[in-house]
């Protein structure tokens, strides 16, 4: 019984670190601002997103890919969803998410097309390059976000850099006791966040007042924004956006596979597609947004060195609980963004390094230099494109061109396809 209790506590701590890293409340906050929602509607959207992410994670780890893949709201469709919500209303926005989710499910099962496509188009070199692209493209995004945070820029970078370096040190610190070593690795993210929060409280302000004022319990509602409405134009638009999310998600599966040293084969892709489709469908029905696998969590898996599915189960359960307790949501939102972004930055570095280890196995001939180098360059360029340029692009293709991960992944797949290997 004592061993079981220790195991439960350990997985609780491991799961909590992933939850801290995911920053799930950010995506619904952005969408609420884009929709000009009032405070009550924004709070409901945040609550539903936590519930949707928890359910989607449990679906993915239970009957989907069955690997420690954590599901959370994708940032890719936010602009398109906001456009649909403003023009057609939130019920139409919810309805527009349902056909694409069902489409992903059908492509995975019973058609089993998704796995065949991934096997043919996403070779080991492509998978490694996508892993590298994900890590590299997220690093400038994290740095840019820190740069645009309110307050003193130097202090923001100091806290973010300190948290990142401390987490890296804790993850690689060697202790004489194996038990202490495991405990340190299991709690390294929490320790880094606590230290970053303490430093931020010295250099700036850490505000927890809203957490004390929040309610303890808020029961969810099924279809909280009313019955979904199905209109052709929004459904086509969001279904196209699902294509970007799917490329992003498959890339995350390859990252997790690389961390676990487990190849992602056709069967796993189809199972993952089932979990992704059902997760996105559930997210729509509870009033959340489309979900995707969170690649930064693969970095945390590598740092903590625990790749058990039970970690993802713990994350899913914790997200569900947080969705029911607004006070916990506010506590998470009160952790300084500077510290969270420092953890995120460390995780991105780990992902990029894992991608590099994968692609270097294939050598650095001219073909591989182009297939690896061009997508990485394009993904980095995408992160600095002015928002005004994206706004001038037609809404049907803007999601593809605004995601560095999607651009890099698609470029990798196409370059590998058009440039045949020489025998």
Report on this structure:
The chain is mostly helical. The protein has one domain (2-418). 75% of the residues lie in helices and 1% in strands. The protein contains 20 helices and two strands. It has helices at 2-22, 26-34, 39-62, 78-88, 90-108, 113-121, 124-147, 153-172, 178-203, 209-213, 232-260, 266-285, 295-304, 309-324, 326-334, 337-359, 366-382, 387-392, 398-401, 404-418; strands at 71-73, 291-293. It has a two-stranded antiparallel ribbon with strand order 1-2. Helix 1 (2-22) crosses helix 14 and helix 6 (113-121) packs across helix 12. The termini are far apart.
SSE layout:
Layout: H1 2-22, H2 26-34, H3 39-62, E1 71-73, H4 78-88, H5 90-108, H6 113-121, H7 124-147, H8 153-172, H9 178-203, H10 209-213, H11 232-260, H12 266-285, E2 291-293, H13 295-304, H14 309-324, H15 326-334, H16 337-359, H17 366-382, H18 387-392, H19 398-401, H20 404-418
Helix pairs in contact: 1-9, 1-13, 1-14, 2-3, 2-4, 3-12, 3-14, 4-5, 4-11, 5-11, 5-12, 6-12, 7-11, 7-16, 7-17, 7-20, 8-9, 8-16, 9-16, 11-12, 11-13, 11-20, 13-16, 17-20
Shape by Cα distribution: globular
H/E topology pattern: HHHEHHHHHHHHHEHHHHHHHH
- N- to C-terminal distance: 59 Å
Number of E-type strands: 2
Q: Which sheet architecture does the biggest sheet show?
A: 2 strands, antiparallel
Averaged pLDDT, please?
83
Strand order of the largest sheet: 1-2
Radius of gyration: 21 Å
Helix/strand-derived category reads: mainly alpha
How helix-rich are the residues, as a percent range?
over 70%
Number of helical segments with 4 or more residues:
20
Summed up, the domain count is 1
Q: Name the poorly predicted regions.
A: 1-6
The share of residues in extended strands comes to under 5%
């Amino acid at each position: 019984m004592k061993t079981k209790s220790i195991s439960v506590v350990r997985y609780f701590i491991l799961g909590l670190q992933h939850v801290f890293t995911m920053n799930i409340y950010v995506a619904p906050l952005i969408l609420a601002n884009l929709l000009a929602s009032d405070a009550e509607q924004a709070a409901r959207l945040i609550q539903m997103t936590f519930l949707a992410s928890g359910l989607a994670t449990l679906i993915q780890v239970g009957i989907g890919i069955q690997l420690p893949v954590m599901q959370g709201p994708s940032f890719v469709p936010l602009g398109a969803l906001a456009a649909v919500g403003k023009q057609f209303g939130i019920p139409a926005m919810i309805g527009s998410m349902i056909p694409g989710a069902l489409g992903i499910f059908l492509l995975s099962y019973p058609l089993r097309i998704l796995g065949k496509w991934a096997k043919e188009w996403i070779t080991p070199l492509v998978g490694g390059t996508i892993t590298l692209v994900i890590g590299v493209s997220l690093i400038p995004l994290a740095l840019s976000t820190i740069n645009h945070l309110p307050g003193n820029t130097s202090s923001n970078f100091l806290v973010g850099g300190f948290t990142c370096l401390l987490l890296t040190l804790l993850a690689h610190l060697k202790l004489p006791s194996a038990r202490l070593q495991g405990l340190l690795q299991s709690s390294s993210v929490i320790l880094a966040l606590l230290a970053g929060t303490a430093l931020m409280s010295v250099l700036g302000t850490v505000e927890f007042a809203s957490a004390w004022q929040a309610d303890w319990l808020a029961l969810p509602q099924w279809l909280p924004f009313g019955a979904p409405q199905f209109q052709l134009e929004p459904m086509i638009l969001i279904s196209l956006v699902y294509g970007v999310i799917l490329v992003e998600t498959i890339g995350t599966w390859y990252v997790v596979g690389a961390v676990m040293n487990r190849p992602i084969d056709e069967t796993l892709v189809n199972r993952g597609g089932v979990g992704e489709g059902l997760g996105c469908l559930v997210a729509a029905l509870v009033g959340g947004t489309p979900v995707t696998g969170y690649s930064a969590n693969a970095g945390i898996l590598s740092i903590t060195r625990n790749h058990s599915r039970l970690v993802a189960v713990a994350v899913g359960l914790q997200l569900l609980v947080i969705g029911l307790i607004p006070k916990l949501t506010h506590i998470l939102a009160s952790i300084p963004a500077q510290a969270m972004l420092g953890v995120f930055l460390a995780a991105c570095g780990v992902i990029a390094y894992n991608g590099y280890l994968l692609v270097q196995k294939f050598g650095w001939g001219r073909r591989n230099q182009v297939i690896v180098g061009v997508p990485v360059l394009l993904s980095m360029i995408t992160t600095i494109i002015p928002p005004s340029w994206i706004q001038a692009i037609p809404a049907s293709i803007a999601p593809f061109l605004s995601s560095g991960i999607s651009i890099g992944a698609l470029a990798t797949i196409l370059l590998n396809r058009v440039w045949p290997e020489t025998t």
